[in-house]
Design goal:
Oligomer: single chain
Order of helices and strands: EHEHEHEHEEEHEHEHEH
Strand order of the largest sheet: 1-2-3-4-7-8-9-10
Strand content: 15-25%
Largest sheet: 8 strands, parallel, barrel
Radius of gyration: 19 Å
Distance between the termini: 10 Å
Low-confidence stretches: none
Shape: globular
């Protein structure tokens, strides 16, 4: 499968003051998809503007025609499968079947305590994710669902008429641990990674590539465990969190070299952060647009 190029647009702009224009520009530049983070606030952006993912994607769906849209990623930190399913079915309808759900177990960021709860342990996050994904899968594929879980339940939850995309909109599952990789193998249409976070500060680009190669090997093992061919899953790299940091966006050549290494590993989609001045995602807009329009031609 040929490589696709996508972008992630953080929801930091008022819709009528640059927000709409970015999503429309993403479509104009020919990106395969444009995603946004599903957080209540995030890291260094916590004390600045930050808008909700679902309303933002709804607006983007009405402002674009061809661009795929989605979250990268949604987590159980402040979501429940029953209400999320209703919103996703509505989004899929409004967009004409252009929604992809990126989904992960969540972490210990600001979302973890925003509802007043204590942060979950890694085991509890994994336990919750293990219930969240299968229940959401049922809610998006069945007209009525009842289920009693330890963490998430549904009582005759109705989701008629279901997704435009059949049997449901695709899941892109973020996972590196064994339990999450098993969920990706069973329920994912794609798998997404940011690399190995332990290498971000002091690792090398070469070590990052090898770490991701190991993640893909483990994904293959998880797929083999249920009799699935790992080649069936798209493999997505969300950039900006490997030791390369922003260097791949310094020039077209730098990006082609970077993307080529991951393409050789079997990645089918690479996601770039839309440039945000004075942030970790600062980049030259002209170079970014050149990469969007010319890089794939050099990677074919």
């Amino acid at each position: 499968m040929s490589l696709r190029l996508s972008t992630v647009i953080l929801p930091v702009d008022r819709w009528h003051e640059g927000g709409r224009a970015k999503w429309q520009k993403a479509e104009e530049l020919g990106f395969h998809a444009a995603y946004t983070y599903d957080h209540l606030s995030w890291r260094t952006f916590r004390d600045g503007p930050w808008f909700g993912a679902v309303p933002t994607l709804t607006a983007a769906a009405t402002a674009t025609e061809r661009l795929r849209l989605g979250t990268l990623v949604t987590s159980p930190n402040f979501r429940h499968p029953v209400t999320l399913a209703k919103e996703l079915i509505s989004l899929d309808d409004i967009s004409g079947g252009r929604i992809t759900l990126g989904i992960g177990a969540g972490g210990n960021g600001f979302d973890a305590t925003a509802l007043g709860q204590e942060p979950w342990t890694p085991k509890e996050r994994a336990d919750r994710f293990g219930e969240f994904v299968p229940l959401l899968d049922r809610l998006l594929t069945e007209d009525a669902v009842s289920e009693q879980g330890t963490h998430y339940s549904a009582d005759e939850a109705r989701n008629i008429p279901g997704c435009v995309q059949r049997p449901r909109l695709p899941f892109t599952v973020a996972a590196t641990g064994p339990r999450g990789l098993k969920l990706a193998a069973r329920y994912g249409q794609a798998w997404v990674t940011t690399g190995d976070p332990k290498l971000y500060e002091e690792g090398t680009p070469e070590q990052s590539v090898e770490a991701v190669r190991g993640q893909i090997d483990k994904l293959g093992t998880a797929c083999a465990g249920i009799g699935r061919d790992v080649a069936e899953l798209d493999k997505v790299l969300l950039t900006g969190f490997t030791p390369d940091r922003g260097r791949p966006l310094e020039s077209l050549g730098a990006f082609v070299d970077f993307a080529g290494r991951y393409q050789e590993l079997g990645f089918t989609e690479i996601v770039l952060h839309w440039p945000i001045p004075d942030s970790d995602f600062a980049a030259d807009t002209e170079v970014f647009e050149t990469i969007a329009t010319e890089a794939l031609g050099q990677l074919a």
